[in-house]
């Protein structure tokens, strides 16, 4: 098969950092080519070079597309040739309709006047291709993230895409939506489309990829051909981290004590729609040194549960009791929740976890400024010492604690968020998707931290959409669906099939 | 604890250095531009009138209101809001002060207190609407701007109200009395109080920054390069002593400069060292993250507006005292000067970023330009054009630097 794309000897430097050094990539027509590598390895940068986000002249090396050397000055240039990138963070306008978004920047217009009839008709065709069953007039803000991803793909199709680049396409999708998306990709492949996919999810890559290129520290390590021989996940991981990772979950000696925290008949109503219960009578308990998982599909109410507990950060008309060390808790404000020993590591670290414009140092102390100040005055030396301590303890990779959080990679940002909450010295930590979008090495470190916290006698609640992760780090797993806990099992006896079965069983009884 | 576990490798250290230089370059770029513009007017004005002692004193007195209000505006903008009503608040507070003193014969110390309370109340009222009523600050304060401008007119009925007691005028145009020390003929004609305040101030600044540097060094924490620290301190010391000497050659230390100095030091402390300041920056940088970290964001927003009102009240008094009358047009378009000073000083329009010292320099920048352009006789309309261009250029340079990362 002919190569549709060849990137030769690509070098790219940012001020002070060499992001890519002599990267080579060959993509053949009609294949799905996966690119894997740890966070900060340079995958996204490479794709930005390819799509013209970093224009010609800011990098060195050649991009050969369909046999010709191309010099893209902008995204428009690359899109014009059918090279379309879908970024990790979705780039949709929330207050515009699906149809408007599909043709955003590529309007069905003549002389600047939009033909709405044509727009909607073509949108319907494209939506049918990606299997999106919605009205073209529905606003983006009113559909789930899974469907939003489909809109992104429809948008790429509208540009007559030849080579589709997907950066972490399933990062924010649940398992069912992810599976549907991957099937869609396989379908497009049959019709001859070429795709490049960046992903951390090795099981997904194993399912769809024809070839895998591994990038480490800004250079290509190797390209594996999955059609010749089956590639195991541990083989890929070895290439990514440069060492064999036999165990993806660090070992831990379990020492579970008496009951620490419990919720009884916790009920929460939707913040806007009064009377509509989102959490419908949840009871849970966590013991000292125990790691408890909450499994469930997107929209099961896991985040809503966590946030409602954490000082009523979500919902209204919250009822039920929360008990810590036998004492009833007053969780009416976030301040009180923190003061009584609760911490909530948010799901979305950029939107909810970090002040990106601020330094690592100030992010770490934000939730416990009292711990570094006297009578409202911050003791800078003490604050620096605290930040330095956590930087070392959690091995946050940053040139300095004065670095702004925005400049850190995802895994290191997550460690900063964790440091912030550890510094509040919580008794119970609720962690919402603690390893989303971070690489294998950083995940391993985060799991190690979770183990350590449990070892100190804290109670840890982990919410995760990745079931292997729950099975790997938890002692006990609750299964949540539609605002209720539908099952509870020791992790030893749990399996992905068993968890899915509990969720599906509930749907079965409803009919 | 054992010796520091992480010895920063050389490339990391270098990166940190370059980061520090980059941060500093932005800050000192502003200062250098200010010095350049001062030099420009020094060359271009007749007999170097722009740096004559009388003009330096004038410069301070003409621009004090911008500095005073820019300190409050900094906090408002850093918190993610804007306050358009400050110019009208200046007019209204001045009108109230004038009416009370001239028509009601209320003693001026009481009037001063009352006016500060009124200013604070105006800010607080708008703060309630923004913070708890969740109405965008642009709209709330646009309303405030119209309301208080209108009330000022109603109160004064188009009249100038004045003059005021000498004591009241001193807020804006008085001088700190000189020390009765005889230093012989050498410094005979120079105001000793002003000069010594300048020298002592420079020495204290030097000592403080060396102390904190030494402390960071001792505890093996990251400290900025010594050369940079010394260099910037020397530049600052020269500027402070130079200004002090220039003031000393005229009538001495203006009262209003003392007020400003105290305020600048206070707000610098609040923004860099206090818990409340830190929280305002976090709020502006990411409101949701701040909330989820236990920061009471509504209360903070309210406080930034109440504080802004208080400072606008003070500025209102200073402006009335300087003009020695309350006028219906006092404070007209002051909000624009103040906001421009903040943006020239590098405050981010989207919140979370801004430094007190840079805002002060931004205000001085505006002041020097106003003053210099008047000296060379540039028409008032052209002055506006130039100021607009400078604002765009300053923010443009900022955006360009950021995009280069």
Number of strands of chain B: 0
* CATH architecture name of the largest domain in chain B: Orthogonal Bundle
The share of residues in helices of chain B is: over 70%
- What is the CATH top level name of the largest domain in chain B? Mainly Alpha
Q: Determine Rg of chain A (CA atoms, Å).
A: 24 Å
Q: How many structural domains in the coordinates of chain A?
A: 3
- According to CATH, what is the topology of the largest domain in chain A? Rossmann fold
User: Which stretches of chain A are poorly predicted, pLDDT < 50 over at least 5 residues?
Assistant: none
Task: Please report which band the strand proportion of chain A falls in: under 5%, 5-15%, 15-25%, 25-35%, 35-45% or over 45%.
Answer: 25-35%
Structural class of chain B: mainly alpha
Structural class of chain A: alpha/beta
Q: Which second-level CATH architecture of the largest domain in chain A applies?
A: 3-Layer(aba) Sandwich
* Secondary structure tally, helices of chain B: 15
Number of helices of chain A: 17
Oligomer: heterodimer
How many individual domains of chain B? 2
Q: End-to-end span of chain B in angstroms?
A: 37 Å
Summarize the SSE layout with pairings.
The complex is a heterodimer of chains A (511) and B (405).
Chain A lengths: L2 E12 L2 E12 L3 E5 L6 H9 L7 E7 L2 E3 L4 H6 L2 E4 L11 H5 L6 E2 L2 E2 L1 H15 L14 H14 L4 E5 L7 H16 L3 E5 L3 H7 L2 E6 L2 E7 L7 H9 L17 E11 L7 E11 L3 E5 L6 H8 L6 E9 L2 E2 L5 H6 L2 E4 L3 H5 L6 H6 L7 E2 L2 E2 L1 H14 L16 H13 L5 E5 L7 H16 L3 E5 L3 H7 L2 E6 L2 E7 L5 H15 L1
Parallel strand pairs in A: 3-10, 3-11, 6-9, 9-10, 15-22, 15-23, 18-21, 21-22
Antiparallel strand pairs in A: 1-2, 1-4, 4-5, 7-8, 11-12, 13-14, 13-16, 16-17, 19-20, 23-24
Helix pairs in contact in A: 4-5
Chain B lengths: L9 H35 L8 H26 L7 H17 L5 H24 L5 H20 L9 H8 L18 H27 L7 H24 L5 H19 L1 H11 L1 H6 L4 H27 L10 H11 L11 H20 L4 H24 L2
Helix pairs in contact in B: 1-14, 2-8, 2-9, 2-12, 2-13, 2-14, 3-4, 3-5, 3-12, 4-5, 4-12, 6-12, 7-8, 9-10, 10-12, 13-14, 13-15
């Amino acid at each position: 098969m002919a190569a549709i794309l060849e990137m030769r000897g690509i070098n790219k430097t940012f001020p002070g950092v060499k992001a890519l050094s002599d990267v080579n990539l060959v993509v053949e027509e009609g294949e799905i080519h996966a690119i894997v590598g740890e966070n900060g390895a340079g995958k996204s940068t490479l794709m930005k070079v390819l799509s013209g986000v970093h224009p010609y002249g800011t990098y060195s090396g050649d991009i050969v597309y369909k046999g010709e050397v191309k010099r893209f000055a902008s995204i428009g240039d690359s899109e014009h040739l059918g090279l379309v990138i879908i970024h990790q963070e979705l780039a949709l306008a929330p207050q515009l309709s699906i149809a408007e978004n599909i043709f955003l920047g590529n309007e069905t217009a003549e002389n600047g006047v939009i033909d709405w009839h044509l727009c909607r008709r073509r949108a319907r065709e494209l939506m049918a291709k990606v299997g999106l069953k919605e009205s073209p007039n529905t606003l983006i803000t009113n559909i789930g993230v899974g469907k939003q991803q489909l809109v992104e793909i429809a948008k790429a199709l509208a540009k007559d895409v030849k080579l589709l680049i997907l950066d972490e396409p399933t990062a924010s999708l649940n398992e069912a939506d992810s599976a549907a998306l991957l099937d869609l990709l396989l379908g497009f492949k049959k019709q001859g489309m070429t795709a490049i996919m960046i992903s951390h999810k090795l099981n997904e890559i194993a399912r769809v990829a024809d070839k895998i290129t591994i990038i480490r520290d800004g250079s290509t390590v190797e390209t594996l051909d999955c059609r010749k021989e089956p590639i195991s996940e541990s083989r890929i991981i070895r290439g990514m981290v440069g060492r064999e990772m036999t165990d993806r979950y660090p070992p831990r000696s379990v020492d579970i004590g008496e009951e620490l925290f419990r919720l009884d008949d916790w009920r929460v109503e939707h913040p806007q729609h009064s009377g509509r219960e989102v959490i419908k009578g949840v009871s849970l308990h966590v013991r000292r040194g125990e790691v408890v998982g909450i499994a469930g599909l997107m929209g099961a109410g896991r985040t809503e549960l966590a946030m409602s507990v954490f000082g009523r950060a979500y919902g209204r008309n919250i009822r039920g009791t929360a008990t810590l060390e036998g004492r009833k808790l007053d969780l009416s404000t976030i301040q009180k929740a923190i003061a009584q020993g609760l911490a909530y590591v948010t799901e979305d670290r950029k939107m909810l976890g970090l002040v990106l414009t601020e330094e690592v140092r100030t992010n770490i102390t934000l939730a416990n400024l009292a711990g570094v100040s006297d009578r409202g005055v911050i003791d800078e030396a003490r604050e620096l010492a605290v930040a330095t301590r956590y930087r070392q303890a959690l091995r946050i990779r940053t040139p300095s604690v004065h670095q702004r959080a925005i400049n850190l990679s995802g895994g290191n940002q997550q460690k900063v968020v964790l440091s912030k909450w550890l510094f509040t010295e919580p008794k119970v930590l609720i962690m919402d998707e603690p390893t989303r979008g971070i690489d294998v090495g950083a995940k391993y470190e985060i799991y190690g931290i979770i183990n350590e916290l449990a070892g100190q006698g804290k109670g840890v609640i982990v919410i995760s959409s990745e079931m292997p992760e729950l099975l790997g780090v938890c002692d006990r797993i609750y299964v949540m669906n539609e605002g209720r806990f539908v099952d509870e099992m020791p992790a030893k006896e749990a399996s992905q099939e068993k968890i899915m079965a509990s969720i599906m069983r509930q749907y079965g009884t409803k009919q | 604890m054992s010796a520091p576990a992480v010895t920063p490798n050389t490339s990391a250290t270098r990166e940190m250095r370059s980061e520090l230089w980059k941060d500093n370059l932005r800050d000192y770029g502003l200062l250098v531009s200010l010095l350049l513009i001062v030099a420009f007017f020094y060359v271009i004005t007749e007999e170097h009138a722009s740096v004559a002692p009388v003009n330096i004193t004038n410069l301070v007195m003409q621009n004090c209101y911008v500095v005073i209000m820019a300190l409050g505006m900094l906090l408002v903008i850093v918190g993610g809001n804007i306050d358009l009503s400050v110019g009208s608040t200046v007019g209204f507070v001045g009108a109230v002060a004038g009416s009370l003193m001239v028509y009601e014969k209320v003693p001026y110390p009481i009037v001063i207190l009352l006016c500060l309370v009124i200013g604070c109340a105006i800010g607080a009222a708008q703060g309630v609407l923004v913070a708890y009523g969740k109405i965008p600050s642009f709209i709330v304060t646009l309303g405030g701007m119209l309301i208080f401008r209108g009330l000022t007119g109603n109160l004064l009925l188009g009249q100038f109200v004045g003059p005021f007691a000498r004591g009241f005028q001193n807020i804006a145009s008085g001088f700190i009395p000189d020390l009765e020390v005889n230093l012989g003929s050498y410094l005979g004609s120079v105001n000793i109080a002003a000069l010594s305040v300048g020298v002592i101030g420079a020495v204290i600044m030097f000592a403080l920054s060396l102390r904190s540097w030494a402390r960071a060094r001792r505890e093996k924490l990251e400290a900025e390069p010594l050369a940079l620290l010394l260099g910037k301190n020397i530049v600052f010391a020269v500027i402070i002593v130079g200004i002090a000497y220039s003031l000393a050659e005229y009538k001495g230390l203006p009262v209003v400069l003392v007020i400003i100095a105290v305020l600048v030091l206070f707000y610098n402390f609040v923004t860099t060292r206090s818990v409340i300041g830190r929280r305002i920056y976090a709020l502006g940088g990411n409101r949701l993250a701040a909330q989820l970290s236990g920061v009471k964001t509504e209360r903070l927003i309210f406080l930034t507006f109440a504080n802004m009102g208080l400072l606008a009240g003070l500025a209102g008094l200073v402006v009335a005292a300087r003009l020695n009358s309350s006028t219906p047009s006092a404070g007209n378009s002051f909000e624009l000067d103040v906001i421009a000073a903040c943006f020239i000083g590098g405050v981010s329009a989207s919140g979370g970023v801004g430094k007190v010292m840079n805002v002060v320099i931004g205000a001085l920048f505006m002041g020097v330009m106003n003053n210099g352009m008047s000296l060379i006789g540039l028409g008032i309309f052209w002055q506006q054009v130039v100021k607009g261009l400078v604002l765009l250029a300053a923010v443009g340079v900022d955006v360009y630097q950021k995009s280069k990362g």
